[in-house]
Amino acid sequence: EVQLVESGGGSVQAGGSLRLSCAASGFSFDDYAIGWFRQAPGKEREGISCITATDGRTFYRDSVKGRFTISSDNAKNTVYLQMNSLEPEDTAIYYCARTIDFCSLYKDYFDSWGQGTQVTVSS
Questions:
Q1: Average pLDDT of the residues in 3-26
Q2: Of the candidates 109, 101, 93, 95, which has an alpha carbon nearest to the alpha carbon of residue 24?
């Protein structure tokens, strides 16, 4: 069974940091790319970062470049999202997902999703 489990969310003040984890199981991790998405209340789910397991290429949404860093530990089948300089606008539920295709920030390319972890940033 394919599983993606997010953890590490929480509540922080603006300017703070969090590190999210996405633990994957039930599939060949090296064959997929893993993306991070977020969804704020009343808004569409948006892609914020992606990493390819094969060569570690990374992609970021413009609004998080320089603040967020995605990384992968293939030995642990886990992808991380280090989030620094958090802003209230980063408040959302954060999801990780997998895609067999090239790395993308478009949710339609991803076929399996985790349950999400809440991130709340207060001003």
A1: 98
A2: 95
